[in-house]
Amino acid sequence: MGIGGRNPPSEEVRAGRRALEGMAGVTLLEDFEWYPDACYGSSSSGGWVLRLRLAPEVDPTGSILEETDWCVWIEPSYPYGAIRFLPAKEGGITQTYHHQQYNYSGNDKYPWRTGWLCLDESVAVLRRNAYQTESFSRHDRLRWHCERALSWLKAASKGELASPGDPFELPQVLYLSDNELTIAYCEGPENLAEWEESSQSVGLLHLKPLYDGSVLLVDHFLTETGDRLRAIRWGKAVERGDDYRVNNLLRAAWIRLPSVPVLEPWQAPLTWGEFRRACCSQGADLDKLMSQVVPRLRDGNPHFMFVGFPIPERVNESYARMHWLALHLPVLTRHGSGSGRKGRRLATKRKKQLGRQDRETVLRNDAIIRWQPTENWRRELPTECGPGRAGIRQRRRWFR
Predict the structure, then answer these.
(1) How far apart are CA 233 and CA 214, in angstroms?
(2) Residue 44's closest CA among 88, 87, 82, 86?
(3) Distance between CA atoms of 145 and 295, rounded to whole angstroms?
(4) Model pLDDT for residues 96-123, shown as the tens digit of each residue
């Protein structure tokens, strides 16, 4: 496309690039190229991409190379709008760290991966290692982001992106589902105490559709045998709704883990194989856990499975509440339909084979997990959950 292709960069963007010339640790690799359909900010009209090589003072024993390549996406409204530092597919980082989007290979037509860095003023480690106040001068803003990126890489190489006392940040999950469904649950500190006292690590749960099916509420948790374990009080604003009173419950499974399922440094699992490894790293056997509950979901239909684990408010502090992720459980191998004593013996004999068949097909190691967004609708009152009436009106608007 040449410099800017058919949409040459503005003078403001050129001024930002000139400010990088001679900057320590920054090398310009390629000039601006216009990508009309690559959008990462508020604009839907594309953006300019500048290719850089960053060489901070990294810890040589860490996982960050001394030099890494980056594609910097810049919104057309520069010096305003979004700036995204995206790892180049050639010469860029491939792992996912704290304060970074999931670093997936992404679209084949782009030379960058999806894992753009979080460099804004809220990142605690960058407040300690770089200038905090973001400048919106055309000469300074791009340079400010480069300084932050260099500090981010330095901290990542030392394993210091998340320090004790920093706000706890969950790993970013890659959502591949194309629907607008959100699943709401309710968890607070007193619920964590209940979970810690419980010996149950797997079970079933019931989901109640709400707002024309655009939201599913966790109605209550069950044991793997179907006994009620915990009911959720959603509050009057939710429970008085006509759609809540309709007795239409969906069945799902849940499993509970000791901690966040993550691959080092801070990557949420994308495949079932990665999920198994993440569980194994904390002493949990995913297949064994699922084998205790999924037999009740072998009905020829897809289901959801919830994955729960405790999280703190701040890094290295005590756990504060349970967090739940949700994933699409594909249609599982079904039991044989034999009748009579012989048929029952055959079904019993096949039961142990079904899990292995699943692991070789729909739950094989390279199969992609379809995560589904969840929200904790915890309110300040310890006895009720839900968004309140104003929140309900908002969610009706958001999800339609």
Answers:
(1) 20
(2) 82
(3) 51
(4) 999 999 999 999 999 999 999 999 877 7
Torsions phi, psi for 320 (to 5 deg): -115, -30
- Claim to verify: residue 212 and residue 319 sit in the same structural domain: yes
Cβ atoms of 269 and 275 within 8 Å: the answer is yes
- Tell me, yes or no, whether 241 and 147 share the same domain: no
For residue 106, the tally of other CB atoms under 10 A from its CB is 16
- For the ranges 67-76, 190-199, 205-214, 221-230, which has the lowest average pLDDT? 205-214
H or E stretch covering 129: helix 124-129
pLDDT of residue 333: 87
Contacts of residue 225, defined as CB under 8 A and 6 or more positions apart, other chains included, come to none
Token duo for residue 315: 């890094």
Which sign, positive or negative, has the C-alpha torsion 170, 172, 177, 178?
positive
Model confidence, pTM: 0.87
Average pLDDT over residues 44-65: 94
- Using the predicted structure, report yes or no on whether residue 339 has a pLDDT greater than 60: no
Q: What is the CATH classification number for the domain harbouring 91?
A: 3.10.110
> How long a stretch of residues is the chain?
400
- pLDDT at position 41 is 76
Sign of CA dihedral 387, 395, 187, 245: positive
Residues 298, 304, 309, 315, CA torsion sign: positive
> Per-residue pLDDT tens for 370-389?
999 999 998 653 444 555 43
Tokens of 4: 């800017």
Is there a single domain that holds both residue 97 and residue 232? no
